Amino acid sequence: MSTSTPTRFAQLAAGLALHSALGLAPASAQTKPLAANTLTVRVDKPGAPIAKTMYGLFFEDINFAADGGLYPELVKNKSFETADHLIGWKAIRGGAALSTYIVSGQQPISVTNNHFLRLTAATASPDAGFLNEGFRGMGVKQGAEYTFSVYLRRGPGAVAGLNVTLEEAGRGGPGPEMPASGQMLAQARISGLGSEWKKYTVVLKPTATAAKARLKLTLDGAGTLDLDVVSLFPKDTFNGRENGLRPDLVQLLKDMQPGFLRFPGGCIVEGRTLAERYQWKETIGDVATRVPLINRWNTEFTHKFTPDYYQSFGLGFFEYFQLSEDIGAEPVPILNVGMACQFNSAELAPVSSSQGPNAGEAHSHADDDPTLEVFIQDALDLIEFANGPASSPWGAKRAAMGHAAPFNLKFIGIGNEQWGPQYLERYEPFAKAVKAKYPGINIVSSTGPAPEGDLFDKATKRLRELKAEVIDEHYYAKPEWFRQNVGRYDNYPTTGTKIFAGEYAAQSVAIGSPDNKNSWDCAISEAAFMTGLERNADKVVMASYAPLFAHVDAWQWTPDLIWFDNLRSYGTPNYYVQKLYAANRGTTMLPMQRGDNAKNGQDNLFSSAVADDAAGEIVVKLVNYSAEARPVTINLQGAKKLGKAGKALVLASNDLNAVNSLDQPQNLAPKEASFKVSSANVAYTLAPHSFTVLRIPGKR
């Protein structure tokens, strides 16, 4: 998600019925379909190839998408390195059983991890300790294993150990008078403490499932104990990785068969200031040494004020590359172009090549005035990190993290959603430097947040003059905008620069409204619009819905593709639209026209077609945005070796306000059945308000 506030946008300008569950009659042949509903697919005159990257994913850490979501660490602020060092932590009974507690920097674990929690108890007490609330609680499952680890150092006194308890939260909530205990789910004791920092590990196995558990740490005995890097991590991760990701969420992504994964955003790439920008070099290496950063969405919206929203970077650039590999998607990292968010500080890095003593080196969040050369060097180093041999400086860092083979990076984004001359004057030297060293890299460029207007037109014109490979366009609008703009790319140039529809989503109420829903009206309108993307596959090579994830208890922006809580997750109707397109991408565009030469979308009938040469099938996508069943005849002109049966996948609902939920995740999901194919003229009845995918055995 790379939008800022609702105000900014104000300133910018049924499928084939298959099962009785749909409540529709079985599909039947029509004796004489209306001429207006005859669709001719020119199987004998194929168009452009469909890019493997055509349908993909846009990830941004908004809505607790990373920490508290895809990244399954259960402890919030595990290293006490946030600006408010005790975010997520509360002393039991306000610290009544402790003599003192303080976040200290005296002889820390490392230079980057330079804060820790020091607890002192004058007398032994079961309440001498702290609780961690997790990310809107901790979701744990009965019988599953969770690795607890912590760095400890014993100070003066006779502390004999640390008691570790996983429990359900008490009724008092996470206030200053947090209750001392709830129902115990698991417990362990750490002993053998020493006077030097040492890592300790135990495994906790809950006796019950809880969506809102918490972690309780108490001193065993009186005296002083230092704690740091407190972690509670599930053993059940995708592919069983030690620092892996939440498996149900990754599986939802993999099931989409995405062509690419764009990361890490979004406005977090820019930051509210340059000091708060996303710096990929600080997100790799030992997880314990990664310095957290304020999430720029934490206080952006008054309707979801979340000052506790930080990025731990446990999910960093190495993990993003690894995730891309795991789900079979091309990685598309987006880097800062030397501009902070233009809707916040609009801070700019100097374009001048007058390099300071640190130009070209990695900068920390504290650096105030990095030059453009610093940002360019970060990009060059990233490409080496991804693609360089293990013998290269940055390739060696990748290899040290466990991936000796290159990631085969093909795309890199320069800037997120910047606009105006400030962007173009930074983009040009940036792109020139990248292409000079890595001519095979495809660069994704920006036209800003609006899909039209003077700034959009000027950026598009200049980027095409510079022979940019891919231009990123964004649009958030009401559902009707998507149906009305299905022909957006019909008249775009067929040669030269290609298009990345990098962020789009229909907004049921208004752009940025907290009342937006992932309704069927939004999803079917997006499905209609996507027929226009597919019909223009010679111009559009990438497209992704945004945002991707949202925690039901901690979201900032809606609508979103996938929703989850601490234990469950579900795909929205929009998710299933995206999945049906990506899983039925095909290999070659097939021209398609109405019998009366009507435009795509006329009379609320939208269509596109592709050949899937690998499967030996013709794939036709049909959207009926009307309240009536609609007969259509599909004329497969020039098709060869037609089979006798095809497969239909249908998303349909008579209720345009229908949504999915955690309790009803399949309320609106595709239905599948086979159908007969007797000739090159295939007649069907489309259900009211439906999106239908027909796969017909046949070759071109």
UniProtKB/TrEMBL annotation:
Enzyme Commission number(s) from the entry: 3.2.1.55
Signal sequence interval, chain numbering: 1-29
The entry's keywords: Glycoprotein, Hydrolase, Signal
InterPro entries: Alpha-L-AF_C, ASD1_cat, GH, Glyco_hydro_b, Glycosyl_Hydrolase_51
Keyword Hydrolase: yes
Enzyme class name: hydrolase
Pfam families: Alpha-L-AF_C, ASD1_dom
Source organism, top-level taxon: Bacteria
Positions of the Alpha-L-arabinofuranosidase C-terminal domain: 502-690
Keyword hit for Transferase: no
Catalytic activity of the protein: Hydrolysis of terminal non-reducing alpha-L-arabinofuranoside residues in alpha-L-arabinosides
Record PANTHER family: ALPHA-L-ARABINOFURANOSIDASE 1
Family affiliation: Belongs to the glycosyl hydrolase 51 family.
Protein name: non-reducing end alpha-L-arabinofuranosidase
Source organism of the structure: Hymenobacter frigidus
